[in-house]
Amino acid sequence: MGHRNPQGLGWDDAGRLYSSELGDNTWDEVNLIEPGENHGWPVCEGECGNAEFVDPLVTWPTSEASPSGLAVHDGHLHVAALRGQQLWQVPLTGDGSVGEPAALFQGEHGRLRTPVSAPDGTLWGTTSNRDGNGTPGPDDDQVLRVTR
Fold first, then answer.
1. Domains identified in the chain and CATH numbers
2. Helix or strand or coil: residue 108?
3. DSSP symbol at 94
4. What is the pLDDT of residue 5?
5. Of 32, 42, 56, 59, which residue has the fewest beta carbons closer than 10 angstroms?
6. Residue 43 has what DSSP assignment?
């Protein structure tokens, strides 16, 4: 309850469900989804400070994210960013909380979408530059193998 536009879901090894969510105008979010909890939309976007709602684990201005997928991989959440044109790597701490997010591939590949953790341990993603919102390069769009 209280979700605006989830763009990615992923389960960690402990069975916790995480969601990346596209905000309206101000904040994009990563949330830990728990039964019966209200994450605030449409009353709150981002951190609300209201005891009726669960605050997100991570927030970004929409210009830095606009999430378009989430994968749990190698102890991290990986959140693809369309407007932010980067892959956010968010460390999982083991108790459902997160560490400090790090931005990977800032502006290197344009708009990123759909991170996927493959059964062989590889992390994959795609670009989304030919959708009318990006600036396509001569080799777009691409499937990317993430190696860092």
1. 6-146 (2.120.10.30)
2. coil
3. S
4. 93
5. 42
6. T
Residue linked to tokens 């499937």:
143
Instruction: Give the tokens for residue 53.
Output: 């709602």
pLDDT in tens, 62-119: 999 999 999 999 999 999 999 999 999 999 998 999 999 999 999 999 999 999 999 9
> Which of 101, 67, 102, 69 is CA-nearest to residue 84?
67
Give CA–CA dist 110/82, Å, rounded.
Answer: 8
pTM for this prediction:
0.93
d(CA 73, CA 90): 10
Question: Contact, 60 vs 82, CB < 8 A?
Answer: no
Distance of alpha carbon 52 from the chain centroid: 24
